[in-house]
Give the backbone structure.
Amino acid sequence: MALDCVNASISHSQQMRQDVEDLILQQDAQDKALLARKSVIEKFLYNTHPPAASDVIDPLTTIENVDDVEHQD
């Protein structure tokens, strides 16, 4: 019985090691994908220039003021 417990623990330990290795591979792939996305975004931002402050229109000044019917008595 003791040998069965030790063998089960060894098997569990090996499975955990394999799971950790799989997670590391998944994390490496995720990091690579994120770095690729970051590169695309950085290149896009590098080639995009913000508009001049005088060209920016405040959207709040163009929104129609609607009557508040929910809070009327």
Notes: The chain has a mean pLDDT of 93. Residues 1-61 form one domain. Helices lie at 2-47.
